Amino acid sequence: MMYSIFLWLLVWGGMFTGWQNFYYYLANASNTAITTMQIFQAARALFPLLAIFLCFLWYLKDRSKFPFAKDPLGFFFLYGLLGMLTSFFLSVSQDYALYNAAIFLAPLFVIWCVHDNENYRTILRNVIYVNYAIFFFLTFAMLPSAYRIGRGFASFTTVYDLPFGFGQVNRNGVGRYALIVIIVSAVRILTDQRRRRYVWVIPLTPALFLLAQTQSRTSLLGLAVASVLFIFLRGLNWRFLFAGPVVAFILFTAGYQVRAGGHLDALLSLTGREATWIKSWNMIKESPYLGWGFYADRIMFSGEHVHNSYLHALLQVGVVGALFFLAAILSFWFIMFRSNIFRQCRELRGSDQAVLMESIMIVAFLSSRTFFESTAAFYGVDLLLIIPAMAFISLFTGRTPGGVGVLAEDA
Fold first, then answer.
1. How far out from the chain centre does Cα 208 lie?
2. 304-314 burial string, b = 16+ CB within 10 Å, else e?
3. What backbone phi and psi angles, to 5 degrees, belong to 161?
4. What is the pLDDT of residues 115-128, one digit of tens each?
5. What's this model's pTM, rounded to 2 decimal places?
6. DSSP code for 404
7. 280 within 8 A of 315, measured Cβ to Cβ
């Protein structure tokens, strides 16, 4: 159990750093002025690769069968493998592209590593709890800045500083952190029958404030999607009389009145994304079948971000790889609806029910986000959310060997 969590933390270790930090360290290793933080950042960049190496050692020992052959995660795996090939043969920055293709596969290797464990369901749930813990920490780490802005002590910003000098994140990223906290807290409040459920109001309230302050349209859209989906998962409940108006107020005030200034065209504006999309499309036409390797947008557009998962996939791995990526998203939702997951959610008990509902709502949010961000098309926070969430949901769709029953309980 602890070994699985250790592997997952290694995968997370590569976040907010990258190959550029390791490359900088190699180039300046003899420089006595290099700081301890720079050394740490360089070392962390290798943690996901270490996770893959340890998973390979386990595979050589146990010879576990590939678990994703009949699962949407298998398409993600094929997408990543093709990315390794295109990064090696077609990328203009081979080492950088190969590194990013490899760490994309790291979370999938970890899930493969733990798949045959008799406690697989519990391990997955604990991996998801690790994700929650990190998101709660990041959300609370942003609150001091949000408080200063709210009190007028600092001007509104679209960029927030991460803790420990790990860099910066834009408001869409901060809104995503807050929304995950909102989803988890709200589900616990609305599904738990015990009095202690009200303790979840403590993280829920500041997360709602932070989400509203960021005015992140993708996260506000995610809030709307998750709220509607929750009704289908849980059924109508008198508590929605209190939750519904709160959600509607935040969406109207933060999204329409403040962010869009009361103008619908401003709300629907792409804020310059279309220029990058045109540039990406022109590059895709030069290598339409196999693309230009992982992180092609950052490499070829001087750090620009495509902001669309499907264009991002086309740019990285061409039509062939983009079909794998699209198949992962579409097949997941096809299997979900075919398995009548909503009924199963209502019949489950204990922590399984809460985690399953949260996972479905998180995947729904991230699926809607694919149109305006490069969600799950490369190694990033979204990928580390969606992989274990999809794996956990697969246990209840009948697609995963050893899946649990409809009325599984775990108090």
1. 19
2. eebbbbbbbbb
3. -85, 135
4. 888 899 999 999 99
5. 0.90
6. P
7. yes
